[in-house]
Amino acid sequence: MTLEKKAGDPQTAVLLCGHGSRDTDGVAEFETFYQAVTARLAPMPVDRGYLEFAAPNIGTSLDTLYDQGARKIIALPIMLFAAGHVKNDIPSELNSFAAVRPDVAVEFARELALEPKLIAAAGARIAEAEAKSASGIARADSLLLVVGRGTNDPDANGNISKLARMLWEGLGYGWAEVAFSGVTDPKVGAALDRAAKLGFKRIVVFPYFLFTGVLVKRVYTAADEAALRHPEIEILKADYLKDHPLVIETIVERMGETDIGMNVMNCRLCKYREQVLGYEAAAGQAQVGHHHHVRAPGEAHDHHEHDGHGHDHGHEHPHDHTHDHDHAHPQERHR
Q1: What would the mean pLDDT of 272-296 be, rounded to a whole number?
Q2: How many C-beta atoms lie closer than 10 Å to residue 53's C-beta?
Q3: Which residues constitute the domain of residue 313?
Q4: Confidence (pLDDT) at 7
Q5: Number of folded domains in the chain?
Q6: 103 with 216, same domain?
Q7: pTM of the prediction?
């Protein structure tokens, strides 16, 4: 089914699934992004829902779309990599909804991941930061520090290293390093101190994030502090992705993948599917969300709350972690 045909079908709707943030600036940016996607997909109905800290939550928005007549909902995770939120938390929300709405087809698109359009958008943000400097330092004399969110999923963390390599080679930097804002190492401050010892005249700090929030602001604070410790080095702070047009176009591509069976999540290095080195005990863990305790005020989860027990509803999960089933699901397919 083409996007144009979907746009004329009032029974098909889109849900943008965000994480949510305690930072009001981050929520405001997501809302602006939501409006931009809504305009791009018009007249198709579009709503947004959050896992935590902001309203409306995903369950509430699913109910809203259903009440508006949607009988096919394409759920788009507005997240860069497939870690716990994409593999566990959002599917848990969708499964809970599907259990009590059997007349709705819920399609779960894949994460944004590493795509040529997003790499180009990242390159554009880095170039914007360079353009604001009058120093004239060449990229060959500069080090690029790519900063990720940081998770306990080694596959998602590894994508930051791959992105750094592609930007390093694609843009012609003298060197590239990676850092993370939390959960895993190296943290931004330590990475900057190490990078300062390599002799480059400039360090460009690029946070590979979609929206601002506590973590992005932490990255920029660490960069400012490092600039004071290393005044001999120019440290530039590149902007994050936000609503760059190429991000919007990637969203549209993810929608189209659901129609041709290409909404595939890479499970080959998933710690829940395979016994990945160092994470062997995680293989086959139950798929249970953990965000009920941080719903936004007034956003109780109605029919999606199940007294704390697991979400086993007798239907297939978009990302089941067990190994005794076929890997081709109607909602989301796995490589």
Answers
A1: 52
A2: 19
A3: 3-110+263-334
A4: 47
A5: 2
A6: no
A7: 0.78
